[in-house]
Amino acid sequence: MSNRVVITGLGVVAPNAIGKTNFLHALKNKTNGIKFHQDLAEKGFSCQVAGTPEVNNNLLNQYFTALEQKGLLASGLIYGGIAGQEAWFDAGLKINKSTDYDAGIIFGTGILGVEKLKEAFHLIDNHRVRRLGSTSVLQTMASGVSAFLGGKLGCGNWVTSNSSACTTGTEAFLMAYNHLKLNRAKRMLVGSCSDSGAYVWGGFEALRILPYQYNQHPEEASRPMSKNAQGFVPSSGAGALVLETLDSALERQAPIYAEVCGGAINSGGQRHGGSMTAPNSKAVQQCILQSLNNAQVDAAEIDTINGHLTGTIMDAVEINNWRSALNLSGEKFPLINSLKSHIGHALAAAGSVELVASVLQIKHQFVFGNRNLQPIHPDILNQISKDTIPDQTQSTAIKYLIKASFGFGDVNASTVLKQFEK
Amino acid sequence: MTKEDIIQKLKRIVEPYVNHTENFNNLTETSDFIKDLEINSANLVDVILDIEDEFNIRIENDDMEQMLNVKKSVEVIQQKLK
């Protein structure tokens, strides 16, 4: 018999809150994490609003030694290092004195340490490569966060990093889930992060898919499912979760937040309407269906959906994909929300931060309200009832939650989570 | 600059990289950076860069290869300061 897998630890560094407890509070209060960024204005961005976590020195000192802070410019490593350690300690785990061969890490990112890369380019071009010192590699290698956390915590199982654009976090989660199902580890720290700043967000500005209409009203800029959605708001941060076999969690008497029932990962192959930037809807629907099949859960049992829903014209297409895959519409459609209405689109970090939010919703039996929803897009109201799109946070019974992430390259990942029962 | 001045400055430079505090507190001229002070070998390049900044000198690869303890480091620094 294969293992049951549960979630035993959470960590989060988000633009509107840092730490599990603050984040829960922010979710319930729909706290805005989007601000005006002077730096973007000075660099000539048309979109001058974004989400950046506010990490203070106390927090930095709590999770990084003075030596680790020396020359530390990779914001993704800061976010991931904090979120990863928070999740680990939240699960009741300690820093291992000797290597724990049953514990692994999968921590993904899109690109790590762009500020550190900028420093490196500058030094190298000025014939000063030797001035890079020892920190350049760790801060700019894609596996920098998993390598940092692996050493900090003493993990001796699979320690790696994945990358699949905006599905990265959800993909890391499912990679670890499968690893645990196969009995190849007892516990896996998973997560993803994304650097902050103009160098990460510039490419999206150039694609003209960021909103430029809300520079005077940053708190209104991120509008998933709204008729006035003008593009996704660039953001950053990190989320982390500890996944564990049920046997290991019970043996340790660890806190159990929720159970992972299953999931699926696929790609639309950039065919049939799919492209580098647009989804092949058939593949999206298949991914959702496969995750339900894998979890052995009926669509009608789903209580709530945590969507990808970025705040672009594609939101109505995503709703159509959910509606078609679940074969539920109108009033029968589950409650749906998007964390991006609170904190924007944290790119590679989105999946993991949104999974932390999803798990908190299950644990505390509520659905957070969508910000900036009104007026809801008519192409969405054509498909599902407005009552299924809460704009206020509400208490509700959640047994099953489904969460999906979709990314550049026409890649998809979907997972089904369940309220924990012994 | 006297030898003692250089050792004092060197002490301040290596301190953040030290993993064996007791040996650091009992630092002698023969203290080995890696074996005794347990400085991570990757951090030796940072120690060298900090020495360059502090003394306004340039340390080449062959100099660096010798600078594994306090005595040798002081010698190289003194030589560069001449």
From TrEMBL, chain A:
Domain Ketosynthase family 3 (KS3): start-end pairs? 2-419
The record ties this protein, via InterPro entries, to: Beta-ketoacyl_synthase, Ketoacyl_synth_C, Ketoacyl_synth_N, PKS_Beta-ketoAc_synthase_dom, Thiolase-like
UniProt-listed CDD domains: KAS_I_II
- State the SMART domains in the record: PKS_KS
SUPFAM superfamilies under this entry?
Answer: Thiolase-like
Provide the primary localization: cytoplasm
- Give GO cellular component annotations, separated by semicolons: cytosol
Catalysed reactions listed for this entry: a fatty acyl-[ACP] + malonyl-[ACP] + H(+) = a 3-oxoacyl-[ACP] + holo-[ACP] + CO2; (3Z)-decenoyl-[ACP] + malonyl-[ACP] + H(+) = 3-oxo-(5Z)-dodecenoyl-[ACP] + holo-[ACP] + CO2
Q: What is its EC number?
A: 2.3.1.41
Q: Name one Pfam family in it.
A: ketoacyl-synt
Which GO MF terms are attached to this record? Answer: 3-oxoacyl-[acyl-carrier-protein] synthase activity
Question: Which EC main class describes this enzyme?
Answer: transferase
UniProt KW keywords: Acyltransferase, Cytoplasm, Transferase
User: How is the quaternary structure described?
Assistant: Homodimer.
Sequence similarity: Belongs to the thiolase-like superfamily. Beta-ketoacyl-ACP synthases family.
- In Swiss-Prot or TrEMBL terms, this protein is called 3-oxoacyl-[acyl-carrier-protein] synthase 1
Automatic annotation (TrEMBL), chain B:
Tell me where in this chain the Carrier domain is found: 4-81
Q: Which SUPFAM superfamilies match?
A: ACP-like (SSF47336)
Q: Which organism is it from?
A: Psychroflexus salarius
InterPro entries, per this entry? ACP-like_sf, PP-bd_ACP
Please name the Pfam families in this protein's record: PP-binding
Any idea what this protein is called? Acyl carrier protein
